[in-house]
Amino acid sequence: MTPIAKLRALDEVVDAIAHPARRQILLTLHFRGGSATAGELAARFEHAWPTTTRHLRVLEDAGLLRHERRGRTRVYTLDRERLGLVTEWLGWFAT
């Protein structure tokens, strides 16, 4: 990945995790072993289904989630490697 592409990817990830509900989705996936259905994720929140799907789409567009269709169900999987962009960037500030 070129340095410019890496910075753009980092911007996408940081923008995606700026919202508390999206950070909660990532934490939920992490503590559920890295994957969960859309329904399982939506059940954790009080907002409407369209709001949840919008958050899932933002996370997926940022490369933080992938989904697989199993019949009528979508199973979302966390992409931990993409989160590494944030860790790498924060490493610049480690002493």
Describe the secondary-structure layout:
Elements: H1 3-16, H2 20-31, E1 35-37, H3 38-42, H4 49-61, E2 65-70, E3 73-78, H5 80-91
Antiparallel strand pairs: 1-3, 2-3
Describe the structure.
With 95 residues, the protein is of the alpha+beta class. The protein has a single domain (3-91), classed as Arc Repressor Mutant, subunit A, CATH 1.10.10.10. Helix content is 59%, strand content 16%. The protein has helices spanning 3-16, 20-31, 38-42, 49-61, 80-91; strands spanning 35-37, 65-70, 73-78. Strands 1-3-2 form a 3-stranded antiparallel β-sheet. A hairpin with a 2-residue loop joins strand 2 and strand 3. The longest helix is centred in the N-terminal third of the chain and has 14 residues, at 3-16. The radius of gyration is 14 Å and the shape is elongated.
The CATH C-level class name: Mainly Alpha
| Series of secondary-structure elements, N-terminal to C-terminal | HHEHHEEH
Could you say how many structural domains there are in total?
A: 1
Proportion in helices: 55-70%
What's the number of helices?
Answer: 5
Widest sheet: strand ordering: 1-3-2
How much is the radius of gyration in Å? 14 Å
Distance between the termini: 26 Å
For the biggest sheet, the summary is: 3 strands, antiparallel
The CATH homologous superfamily is called Winged helix-like DNA-binding domain superfamily/Winged helix DNA-binding domain
Structural class: alpha+beta
CATH architectural name: Orthogonal Bundle
Mean pLDDT: 92
Shape: elongated
By DSSP, the count of extended strands is 3
Oligomer: single chain
